[in-house]
Amino acid sequence: MTETICIIPARMASGRFPGKPLEPLLGLALVLHVWERCRRAEGLDRIVVATCDEEIRAAVEARGGEAVMTADTHPGCVDRTEEAIDILRPDLADDAFVLMVQGDEILIAPDMIAGILAAYEKTRAPVVNLVSRIDKEADHDDPNVVKAVAAPDGRALYFSRAPIPSRSRADDVPMWQQTGVIGLSAGFLKTFGRLERTPLEMIEHIDMMRTLEHGYPIQLVSIDRETLGVDTPADRDRAEGILAADPLTAEYLGALND
């Protein structure tokens, strides 16, 4: 079976919500919710939080987790993930799988991770990215929500903060949101770190555009339910309400309180 390492990048200096990794939801820091939810997935050989902030490292280790310190100069999460793997496992085989789960993907669940792992085993695409359905036109129009469009076979065609595909001339337009749950082969992760940043990547502020602009395929895995990346205090409040009703949350909060 393919060796799989999960990296959870997190940093305190978020432009829209500074300090959000340690923001409490139901009494537990945001990044620790993500870590706990990843721990309940099968097929992950190691789970590590990658951060440039000592307070995040301390919080993770206090819960019994593993953290690695990285530079504070990375332009994106994938770059931080690449450094983390270089520190932790520079000998990692090229066909091993690195699953990056951004530290604000508060609704990550074991079945989502299972879908990503299955897609990699089937396609061996260099990148596999989870996307979730957008139900509200307001979310489709929101530039904080990264939209994804795909070919019929699931290959990503483009990512944008604009509302794509356009709703202006069609009804029932498929609307999908890119999530911060991205798996990469270890070989491609090394390659990504050597690729020049690209014009559309910088225009859209989406690091996966670098992959597409350099001609590498991305396989999308879709789920027909909500995901939520916490970007603002309002997202935090919304996430807390969803977590409170989620049986998975009760499972790990109960374990922590036992």
Give a brief description:
The chain has helices at 30-39, 54-62, 77-88, 110-123, 137-141, 186-194, 199-204, 208-213, 233-244, 247-257, and strands at 4-10, 24-25, 28-29, 46-51, 66-69, 97-101, 127-133, 147-150, 156-160, 176-185, 218-223.
Give an account of the 3D structure.
Helix 3 (77-88) packs across helix 6. The chain is an alpha/beta fold. The protein is 36% helix and 22% strand. 40% of the residues are buried. It is built from 10 helices and 11 strands. The radius of gyration is 17 Å and the shape is globular. The strands form 2 sheets. Strands 1, 4, 5, 6, 7, 8, 9, 10 and 11 form a 9-stranded mixed beta sheet that branches. The longest helix is centred in the middle third of the chain and has 14 residues, at 110-123.
Q: Percent range for helical residues? A: 25-40%
H and E order: EEEHEHEHEHEHEEEHHHEHH
Main pleated sheet: 9 strands, mixed
The Cα radius of gyration reads: 17 Å
Q: On the 0-100 scale, what is the average pLDDT?
A: 94
Per CATH, the architecture is Alpha-Beta Complex
- How far apart lie the N and C ends? 34 Å
CATH H-level superfamily: Spore Coat Polysaccharide Biosynthesis Protein SpsA, Chain A
Q: Tell me how many strands there are.
A: 11
By DSSP (H or I, 4+ residues per run), the number of helices equals 10
CATH class: Alpha Beta
Helix-strand category: alpha/beta
Q: Which residues sit in consecutive blocks of at least 5 with pLDDT less than 50?
A: none
- Described by the principal axes of the CA atoms, the overall outline is globular
Q: Give the domain tally.
A: 1
